[in-house]
Amino acid sequence: MAKKVKAVVKLQIQAGKATPAPPVGTALGPHQINIMAFCKEYNARTQNMAGTIVPVEITIFTDGTFSFVTKTPPASDMLRKAAGIEKGSGEPNRVKVGKVTRAQIREIAEVKMKDLNAKDIEGAMRQIEGSARSMGIIVED
Amino acid sequence: MEYLEIAVPNIDGEAAEAVCELFNRYGHGGAVMEAAAPAFDRVTVRTVIPADDQARREHIEMMLALIGKALPHGLPAPQFTRIGETDWATAWREHFQTIRIGRRFVIKPSWREYTPVEEDIVIEIDPGLAFGSGLHPTTRLCLEIFETMDWAGQELFDVGTGSGILSIAAAKLGARRIRAVDIDEVAVRVAQENFARNGLADNPSLVVETAVGSAVDAGGRRWPVVVANILANILLELMPHLAAATAADGRLVLSGMILEQEAEVTAAAAAQGLVVVDRRQEEDWVALVVQRKEA
């Protein structure tokens, strides 16, 4: 019989830098997860991606066991890196803060493809372009 | 440090993405999204900030209000909860049980009772904020390897000691000299506390040294047994120093790598003239014992 899911916790944290402090500790503690074991696993599996946010999805079962999978970095994080900017625009309609090329959008879409609800790479690219626009990043050909 | 948790409860995926983006930028240590049975399509998004950072709190409140205006269904009011340090640092303890590892080791948290039976080696460990609770496969593999070694009169250099669990195990198996180092001051302090708790500090036939440091800080000598239970990339980086700290006929125990990193670690050891003489695996974690070819 399949195990019954009690909760799903998604963390967006820096690769290789999980610690038992909040918000990780406060999120996982109530679910009876050995936080140290989780942090060590996460850090081991993400250590090569330092400087990037690597989301992780933890599924907690009713029998107290848990499993987790790491996801691709958020599109906004990858767009910031591609455009070489610290943060997106507070007023994306009026204030543009950076530029990315369509080739960069394709690269990001290819990485993000498995985590997106897109039928094909063009659909994924449109989603990434939408994220870029909402951050005040211009997409160039 | 005391924290203030900011939670936006019961929102849909679109709203959660926007709130997560905000929390990633202005929160402390990332954002958490949680969905609980039975409504997995509704999530609560949380982050924390230092409790006394009023300016950051106001900024986040203002940004949440703006996000709420842009969303078709708005956002529920954020909830604020003050979190004291002990709330998270000790919460997991309740679920930390006494465990048996290998044939003889019994790992017991200081807050649990255990009556040892014949041949049991009881290690009382309070991992606190340092790694090495004994629950993790990497530590278990090292303990199993230790159990197969003859420790009478041996000397151990423990690199990345964490909670000090491996040094304590070696001492209880008969080692007479131990040097435990960690680059994390908290780990060194926790290890010292655990050494005292396990009677290492007042054992007259045992010399114990601790230091904040790494593989280069071998105390000016080479060691018959060196253990490094860390992570693969650090093992790779430290390999020349670990090899240099290992005596000519000594053994180096390497743990903390996953299966796919094993070949790289083995190659790095080989580059230092070290060959694998023992290998253990649990799930996809691997521990190796390496030794000089001529030994």
Radius of gyration of chain A: 17 Å
Q: What do we call the CATH homologous superfamily of the largest domain in chain B? A: Vaccinia Virus protein VP39
Give the helix/strand class of chain A.
alpha+beta
Care to count the β-strands of chain A? 5
Per CATH, the class of the largest domain in chain B reads Alpha Beta
Topology overview:
The complex is a heterodimer of chains A (141) and B (295).
Chain A: E1 5-14, H1 24-28, H2 35-46, E2 53-61, E3 66-70, H3 75-83, E4 98-101, H4 102-112, H5 121-134, E5 137-140
Parallel strand pairs in A: 4-5
Antiparallel strand pairs in A: 1-2, 2-3
Helix pairs in contact in A: 3-4, 4-5
Chain B: E1 3-11, H1 13-26, E2 31-36, E3 43-50, H2 54-70, E4 79-83, H3 85-89, E5 99-101, E6 105-109, E7 121-125, H4 137-148, E8 155-159, H5 165-173, E9 177-182, H6 185-197, E10 207-212, E11 223-229, H7 232-245, E12 246-258, H8 262-271, E13 274-282, E14 285-292
Parallel strand pairs in B: 6-7, 8-9, 8-11, 9-10, 11-12
Antiparallel strand pairs in B: 1-3, 1-4, 2-3, 5-6, 12-14, 13-14
Helix pairs in contact in B: 1-2, 4-5, 7-8
